[in-house]
Predict the 3D structure of the following.
Amino acid sequence: KAVVSTQSGHYGRGPIIFALSNPTSQAECTAEEAYKWSNNKAVFASGSPFPRYEQDGHIFEPGQGNNAYIFPAVALGVMCCGSINIPDELFLQSAEALSYLVSDKDLAVGRVYPRLSDIQEISVKIAVSVIERAYELNLATVYPKPDNLEQFVRDQLYSTDYPTFIPETYEYDLSNYQ
């Protein structure tokens, strides 16, 4: 509490607090505590979900700083383009791509990451960025390079939408068969 309060007063901006320990009960502090102790100035992300919080008319929706944003998207991009290795540059590219996916709406409610509920769409966009970088670094082995990388990535995704295997049935009158 003392560190957060002190940081809030000295620099004019709020402290950056990434309470990443899991589970939630082990987090370094709660979102509510971070906002209270910093007079609503904290930039907060956590490793576990915290509930929406309202204080002094401000609504905060703390986001999760989670490796679920980066590793699946990098893996998707690498598999789609057949990258011969995975250098640090691809992880840096994914982090930069993620930063562009944080909207003004996210920032307005205190989120420094996009909503985790949008993870599939986020992963597609990051994977496309990773693929672009892999081609720039001559790491990709899928040639020719697809014209529409986003559609190419989407076409590789596993879909849980199955057609029905239940045959169609029809009602008919059995009274003629007696």
Observations:
- The helical segments are 2-10, 31-37, 71-81, 88-100, 104-108, 119-136, 149-156.
- Residues 44 and 178 are 75 Å apart (CA to CA).
- The chain has a mean pLDDT of 90.
- The radius of gyration is 23 Å.
